[in-house]
Amino acid sequence: MPSNAVNPDLQREREKASFNTQEFTYWWLGGKEKYEAKKKLEKLFLDDPELKDELPISYMSPKELYEHSVRKAVIIAKKLRELRADGEDDVDTYTALFGGALGSALIKEGNPMMLHFVMFVPTILGQGTVEQQIEWLTKAWNCNILGTYAQTELGHGTFLRGLETRAEYDATTQEFVLNTPTISAYKWWPGGMGHTANHAIVVAQLYTKGVFRGLAPFIVQLRDLETHMPMLGIDVGDIGPKIGMKSVNNGYLGLKNVRVPLNNMLMKNQQVLPDGTYVAPKNSVLTYGTMMFVRVALIRDLSQTLAKASTIAMRYSAVRRQSPIDPNKPEPQIIEHTTQQLKVFPQIAKAIIFKITGEHIWNMFNNVSGELEQGNMDRLPEMHALSCCLKAITSADSAAAVEVCRLSCGGHGYMDCSNFPTIYGMTTAVCTYEGENTVMLLQTARYLVKVYAQALSGEPLVPTVQYISDYIKNREFGAFDCTLEQIVHAFQFVAAK
Amino acid sequence: MPSNAVNPDLQREREKASFNTQEFTYWWLGGKEKYEAKKKLEKLFLDDPELKDELPISYMSPKELYEHSVRKAVIIAKKLRELRADGEDDVDTYTALFGGALGSALIKEGNPMMLHFVMFVPTILGQGTVEQQIEWLTKAWNCNILGTYAQTELGHGTFLRGLETRAEYDATTQEFVLNTPTISAYKWWPGGMGHTANHAIVVAQLYTKGVFRGLAPFIVQLRDLETHMPMLGIDVGDIGPKIGMKSVNNGYLGLKNVRVPLNNMLMKNQQVLPDGTYVAPKNSVLTYGTMMFVRVALIRDLSQTLAKASTIAMRYSAVRRQSPIDPNKPEPQIIEHTTQQLKVFPQIAKAIIFKITGEHIWNMFNNVSGELEQGNMDRLPEMHALSCCLKAITSADSAAAVEVCRLSCGGHGYMDCSNFPTIYGMTTAVCTYEGENTVMLLQTARYLVKVYAQALSGEPLVPTVQYISDYIKNREFGAFDCTLEQIVHAFQFVAAK
């Protein structure tokens, strides 16, 4: 069989499909137009010989892998700049290039410049004033500066109030003085901080006039733009090897009396005036926006990742033959074994369910964001609870599903060349970052307890939790007739009960 | 705090222990004598400066890691030879040096010479005649030859009848001719085969006088003893990077008309006479012995691995402080959080349960082996079913438990320096090798269906499944009084039902 021929077992399975696969593809991607845009983008990047790996990256040391990945990241950034100059980039371009599909195909273990595009630029957009956006965004889009986002510390992650990095305003010089006073205050994990970025948005506890004001974001220069050496007072480096995301270049950051100008604090939501007067945000919940956005984006991306894992397992199950079912017949494709079907099929189903869920919450997020812009906060708690809950559920279930897929490929799934080890490393990380799953579930529980009390006192509930009111009004389930509506009703009934 | 000081939170937890930890240690290890032998062995190996890592292995490329590991493996083998010369080695020595405790401490990602000691030598002992043992074992114990065990192929693993490697006897030269006729017949996975071993026990389908006789083991020389280059007809190399066991040096092997003398077939259980006459084994189940031994050894070792993982998680939970429970008090050790207790405590309990289970089945295996030597096969099916079942359950549960422990350490568990990535790689592999877990559970199910039928027809059952007879005789559970006996009875009742 020539190396580019399709395995005949696989070809036969494809021909047997009982549905129109092209139609399914359009649905998955959101229409024919999106499909064609995707193909065009993939051609632009995947056909570039400079972006191909000559040696599988598994054979590299961490240092070699970083150098290899940052070289490719620079090529990708150049192409992105060209697309942007031609007005051919949109949100789908960035979602694709830094997500689990095209992004992972280009740099398997994660792009060391990812946080520049998915956190540094969006945070300036979301939290900078118009003047600050003009000042920083041009440089950032052109990659004249390369940024990352430094919030989590060695000592504190999801529990934000525990962060120890301090920014004290010095009105005499109109500067903030930033410090990480203890070892546990060191920033820990920012992608690209290890060796790549020369700037960071540093989240710190703000003090002005000696009074504590809460968390605020500051743009801090980490490295000299010419020599790439750390600036005075900056202690920066790589945190070391990890299960996955091996080329994301996660770093640490210590700050010792690092001074930044007043204008380096992002001031869209809260302000410090030159004399040190603090102007609090009109609504502190506005800072939820970025967190919700990232969680919603993660939920969408997980369906893509799980689709990839279950496709690998399904293809393997079609081409691998093992253990006769009927001793008089040749060994069947392993997908003929019931035990194999029970492993692989539910993971395919989950990928599709998470896809529908992801699109639903993506649309809801866009609606709620629009309402927020107009000062309407009504659906914010619902949106927050739903994004917490689904981030936890989809990440935990996807990580478990990837392992089921991997184990369904026997020993071959254990090898790096199956791609499962990389996919698992990427997926299980989502259980921890952007809000640790246990905390996310506790937030969901807190919301549910609150709305349950509202329902008991007869208050109307938002659509997502309407089923609780329904249950309280009518505690009898009635007859079950196995229709789809009844199955949904049964889940709601059990959940409310 | 000096780097060798114990964290005060950890010290306080240790002092609060409500039981005698020394007594527990003796129990875990099987008595004070075993404890002292363990300490002595650890001192001999862990204090050797040549066996320490100057650079964490996570920073190495696969090639560097292999060279580093094989250098250490040679030092370990030399020390083992000295112990053996002084009569100071026993089964515990090898269990320790190639297991999840001392073995993993010395070569974290697996000893490339492990299969020489745990498969090559034991197979010659178990399946070689006395003459063959004399011929091969002296060389093997002295490491004048280095072996591995080649059974699994690219195309077939757990389903042994599907193996394709052929050994045809040529009576004219009194040699076997070995071939891997297809790409899927290539041996795949043998540890140390990549670049380390110069011999292998190759399991092949035996043909004499043109008649198929079943599987048989052959000693095959892979590489020249002086140049280490592959012998004529041998195609051998490394299969590539994997999730874990990264320095085990798993390899592939193709054979093209490789000739070995008649006496290279291990002939304790079955024989080929010079004219090609085949003498079948007296009892084909005797070949189960090695498989059962390995599974029992794995079950014992998994308790050790899980104890290690849960110890790391427990220590982290004692020293990490996060998120106040009472807002007026400082952040507590995270083990004070109920959610953290629910993650870590059950894994500690499982490690202890698997320890008791492992010792139980180890003793049972030794008894049954003694009975087998005397021709008594009565308990073989029970022993086989129990070792299959427990291999599957303990490996799947341990792998899941390691991940619970890892995730309970938040982002820090994701880093290689937590040691969780290595432990998970080692543990999840056990789900697949030495009998894929799904197949193991199907074997268990087959046994249970068989004994259930026996119980229904009134035949007496062996102790392990006696509870099925009890249930059939008395299908009423009766009152439940929550004693330990009643809890065991309840599990048995539910299982039988």
Could you walk me through the main structural features you see in this protein, from its secondary elements to its overall organization?
The structure is a homodimer of 497-residue chains. The first copy, chain A, is an alpha+beta fold and 497 residues long. Chain A folds into three domains: 8-111, Orthogonal Bundle (Butyryl-Coa Dehydrogenase, subunit A, domain 1), CATH 1.10.540; 146-282, Butyryl-CoA Dehydrogenase, subunit A, domain 2, CATH 2.40.110.10; 287-459, Butyryl-CoA Dehydrogenase, subunit A, domain 3, CATH 1.20.140. Helices cover 49% and strands 11% of the residues of chain A. Chain A has helices at 8-15, 21-29, 32-46, 62-85, 91-97, 102-106, 114-127, 130-141, 288-319, 338-373, 380-407, 410-414, 420-429, 437-456, 466-473, 484-496, and strands at residues 147-150, 166-170, 175-179, 187-188, 199-208, 211-221, 234-238, 251-255, 258-261, 271-272, 278-279. In chain A, strands 1, 2, 3, 5, 6 and 9 form a six-stranded mixed sheet that branches. Chain A has a three-stranded antiparallel sheet with strand order 4-8-7, with no helix packed on it. A two-stranded antiparallel ribbon of chain A has the order 10-11. In chain A, a hairpin with a 2-residue loop joins strand 5 and strand 6 (211-221). In chain A, helix 2 (21-29) crosses helix 3 (32-46). Chains A and B meet through helix 4, helix 12, helix 13 and helix 14 of A and helix 4, helix 12, helix 13 and helix 14 of B. Chains A, B: Keywords: FAD, Fatty acid metabolism, Flavoprotein, Lipid metabolism, Oxidoreductase, Peroxisome. Chains A, B: Residues 20-145 form the Acyl-coenzyme A oxidase N-terminal domain. Chains A, B: This is Putative peroxisomal acyl-coenzyme A oxidase 1. Chains A, B: It is found in: Peroxisome.
